[in-house]
Design goal:
Largest sheet: 9 strands, antiparallel
CATH class of the largest domain: Mainly Beta
Pfam families: 2OG-FeII_Oxy_3
Organism: Apiospora hydei
InterPro entries: P4HA-like (IPR045054), Pro_4_hyd_alph (IPR006620), Pro_4_hyd_alph_FE2OG_OXY (IPR044862)
Number of strands: 18
Helix content: 10-25%
Cofactor: L-ascorbate
CATH architecture of the largest domain: Sandwich
Keywords: Dioxygenase, Iron, Metal-binding, Oxidoreductase
Order of helices and strands: HEEHEEEEEHEEEEEEHEEEEE
Number of helices: 4
Oligomer: single chain
Structural class: alpha+beta
């Protein structure tokens, strides 16, 4: 009996401090800096030694911060008209049905979750198309500060027609030992003039002090009092100032060709927890079509040392 008591005390001494730190902190401790896991580098936008640096025109985009936690930025004119036309031209013959994955490796088609067409854009071999893709990649990296241990995934365009959609989901999925899909861009390449529906919805993203100018980019209440989107429904139910100086939950971004939304997927504490506010969906297109561009960044999660 005495030996069991001694063993129990020894175990308590060994695990007391880790358990105390865990519960006193109220959650998991941050990941330590761990080596990069094995990945399929063919899925990343990595230049070959002989590729050189593309000749990229100066950017002319402007940014508007919607949220700081999580960081969500609306970007005007991320793509030029010429870039959008070129992306459409090179995507046309490459479109194929979109797929989903449940384990990060195998993919399958499920139109109840994701119904669209996707084109993996070429970035090598020379020519205006490859150079344009690489210039867009460099622009996306520069906007994020050329962070260490961060790579772009290969760029993909997405085409949606009537009734097509992408159900609510997280881009971040899960982290693997401190690595994952750390950020996302949703860029609009093209949209029909008579497009109905097809907005990008963030039902849990809180917007504060939303000015009337935002109604150019997000769905707002119409002049006859009808509401559009989760945020405006909340306003209709709970009230709110007519000038937009209020706080609302949820919003729907309109497909605006050339513009984009950028957001970070993980909390900056290194625990691997994603932001619940980044739950989003591509709402069904009711009429017309839209074409989007996904820019995903994969790399090391932020880890703020205490």
């Amino acid at each position: 009996m005495f030996s069991y008591v001694v063993a129990g005390v020894a175990l308590l001494l060994v695990f007391y401090n880790p358990l105390l730190e865990y519960f006193s902190a109220g959650g998991p401790r941050p990941h330590a800096y761990l080596p990069r896991p094995a990945i399929n580098e063919s899925l990343l936008a990595i230049d070959a030694p002989h590729d050189g640096v593309p000749d990229c025109a100066p950017h002319s985009y402007s940014i508007h911060i919607l949220s700081k936690a999580p960081l969500v930025i609306y970007i005007e004119n991320l793509l030029s008209t010429a870039e959008r036309e070129l992306l459409l031209n090179i995507s046309g013959p490459l479109f194929e049905p979109s797929t989903i994955t449940n384990n990060g490796a195998e993919t399958h088609h499920d139109a109840t979750i994701r119904d669209s067409e996707v084109a993996l854009l070429p970035r090598s071999g020379g020519g205006a198309g490859a150079d344009t893709v690489r210039c867009i990649e460099r622009r996306a990296l520069a906007l994020q500060g050329w962070r260490d241990d961060l790579w772009l995934e290969r760029l993909r365009t997405q085409r949606y027609g009537p009734s097509q959609h992408y159900a609510h989901h997280f881009d971040w999925g899960s982290s693997a030992l401190g690595w994952g899909r750390v950020s996302s861009f949703m860029v609009w390449v093209d949209a029909a003039r008579d497009l109905e529906g097809g907005g990008t919805e963030f039902p849990f993203l809180r917007r504060r002090g939303l000015k009337k100018e935002w109604c150019s980019w997000v769905e707002c209440a119409t002049t006859d009092g009808e509401s559009k989107g989760k945020g405006e429904q909340a306003k209709a139910q709970g009230g709110g100032a007519d000038n937009g100086e209020d706080e609302e939950m949820g919003l729907v971004f309109k497909p605006a060709p050339g513009n984009a939304v950028f957001w970070e997927n993980f909390r900056p504490d290194g625990t691997g927890r994603g932001w619940e506010e980044t739950w989003h969906a591509g709402l069904p297109v009711r009429k017309g079509f839209k074409v989007g561009l996904n820019i995903w960044s994969w790399g090391r999660l932020d880890y703020q040392m205490a």
